[in-house]
Amino acid sequence: MARTVRGGLIQATLSMSAEQPIEKVKQSMIEKHLLMIEQAAKKGVQILCMQELFYGPYFCAEQKTKWYSLVENIPDGPTTKLMQEVAKKYSMVIVVPIYEEEIKGVYYNTAAVIDADGKYLGKYRKHHIPHCDPGFWEKFYFKPGNLGFPVFKTAFADIGVYICYDRHFPEGARILGLNGAEIIFNPSATVAGLSEYLWELEQPAHAVANGYFVGAINRVGTEAPWNIGEFYGKSYFCNPRGKIIVQACRDKDELVVADLNLDEILEVRNVWQFYRDRRPESYGAITDLQK
Fold first, then answer.
1. Catalytically annotated residues
2. Confidence band of 135 (pLDDT split at 50, 70, 90)
């Protein structure tokens, strides 16, 4: 009998203007996502992931300290605690992207992972932090992740997280595979233009190279402070063969649901023996050249 997991992805527009009070925007987005999580539960979703920095706008389009007020502790902050209750209520694994405060003034772009019984399993901190014009001023807000590339053994599958800009780097994607990940979730906030053609190229390539499933999540719509482009949605799941098996539209809120047959991982790896044939002893130049 196939080992099948029902996965879900939530892509969502900003629920109100980012010019409104920050706490009001945050609460509105949390309430919006709670309704979509309930919808996911009714569809039998077992593992769910939301978009990057899900409870606010993509504020990194400007450099203003007011957005620091969105930070929370993980796991003791209110959003993690709330999602633990929700996960337990629906017997659902939930990946929760949060603007994390480690200590006062030290912040990360993070995703908390909560098991189906409501237990907090750990977190992944975004490893690669862009800082470029126009509109990606992330080093103003986040330190680079320092927790490595953990894999979380959940009730339904072993999962890893790779956040947005991370997807451009194959090294961490490989480490997640070596660490045993069966599904990788990539919560993102990415806009039309420069990288859109890569959206359906890089992550299926990671899936093929590493023989696992990928769930790619993106925002939708236009919002302040990002007023120079459109978040194009198109969230999707792809299988270990790199085939996109289900995909959302580009312009509206959507819950993406797919049944993922985890037995396909072994089937693919028995054909494409990339883990057997890799030569790590010859790759030292990758790290030697960093200096």
1. 52, 126, 164
2. confident
